[in-house]
Request: fold
Amino acid sequence: MIRIQSEALAIEPVLAALEDDAPAIGAVCSFTGLARDLGDQSGVQSLFLEHYPGMTETAIQAVVDEADRRWTIHRTEIVHRVGEIRAGERIVFVGVSSRHRQDAFEACQFIMDYLKTRAPFWKKEITAAGNSDWVEQKASDREAARRWADSDGL
Amino acid sequence: MAESSIAIRFFASLRERLGISEEQLPADGITCVRDIREQLQKRGEEWAELLDDDCVLMAVNQAMAREETPVNPGDEVAFFPPVTGG
Reply:
């Protein structure tokens, strides 16, 4: 399931949903992204996340579909927050269940890497001093996504 | 109205710097994304400069698009900066 929400991100219900399919599955792998106090600026107090409603869900679904083609995965749970997020709070959760751990590990990392370069979210940092700036896309994020493309000749 | 126009949307830094989030553009003479970009760039220096950026991404009906992607009346076309979610 893919959820875009402004409220706080609770992990327990999504982890429980992933484990619901036991004993048909043998592995659950998840990633949780947190809002850091150090980004392009230091002393970040909060983030503001804007997105493109509709396209966001479609773009993430396309990434999940691609993961489904590459690995044997059972279920995915993806939650992304939008709006104001304070430093220390969770921004994103990606969870994958599978019969085997290797598929769960790799699919989880793939989905997160592709989400960062393909899903239409934009992040603004707001510092304690009152500075407010849009975050630049990182070359390291583009490289992380490209790595998967190279390995499959896509 | 919807049949003869194209919905244009802007997001994030582009939305803020252009001072507009969405508008309707007459569909006359528009066949692809490039036509819209060129038409918008005629509005002034700020528009010309911001939309000239190679980093500007484009979407047609909420799917990533290129300059040559066809656009039809009733379509939704969006311009935005590189994405920074997660």
